[in-house]
Specification:
Order of helices and strands: HHHHHHHHHHHHHH
Structural class: mainly alpha
Oligomer: single chain
Number of helices: 14
Helix content: 40-55%
Number of strands: 0
Radius of gyration: 22 Å
Amino acid sequence: LHDGRDDDTPVIAQMSALFLDFALRAQGAHEARGLAPEKARLAARATVARLWHRILMQDYLPRLCLPGLPKPAADRAGPRDVPVEVSHAVLRMGHWMVRSQYTLASDAVPVRELLAGQAGIAQKRTRPGLENHWRIDWRQFFELDPAIRPQRSLSLETGIAVMFGSDFALPGGLQIHSALVQSDNDLALRDLARSIDGGLQRVSALARRLRPLRARFPDWALWTAAARRRLVAGWFAANGLTPPPPLLRDPPLYLYVLIEAGKGPARQGFGGGRHLGALGSALLARSVAAAVAVAERALPPPDPAHALPDFDSITTMPALVRFLTT
């Protein structure tokens, strides 16, 4: 389903277009195998859904989550909605990973100009070399060509990137020290506020829920209140701050997840700036696994007579791009 907000940036818009293209190709392939157009359309929807599930489980989670975790298993039943602890805290780590500028292709208008609006775009397109200013060369983002190094995200320990168009104001009575952020943008405060006022479970409660993992990962700082206090106190000290006692006792989930994703031994549950740490990884992996399990049960069972091996073998975003562009 198209979301109008996808048109705000060329990356998201064209990412959506990749899946739409895949859906149309899948429908055509099902029709070529004898399905009527309406049945082919329904079969293509299931093909796309299963593709997305494979990418989530086999590409997205391994890139974001701490290596060495057991295969994620759904730990809840019921609605497919992602828990608020993930949507309002863990997934907001993506705001720390976004760069303020990207190269889309060798002949592209800079992203900053595209985000500023369409004024003058028609004139820009008449300039030699800018005819394809909106087109993305996916080699700039995925491992597709050894000669081109993809643009990586920011490390999860570098501070929040400058974002565009934020006008969030903190609720009355909620105060967060300005030194907690490394830019003058209020998006970091928005994220911290959402992780406080959204009815999220406490870090201590989530740690208790994950205790079955303790036998396999006994050295994680997550397990004891004293280790969690040292982790948070060390982060404050590294930034020249004195932590308020309430933050030491039980920090906001969003803040703890970001601190845990920073530098430190993986054995103790740190992400090293490249992955989420122990708590963030476990919450994200289990929640996505649960949502995928519910969604899979809602799909019609696969029909071997109408299998599409070339489509069903795709498990990663780079493989999807190759399939659609080569």
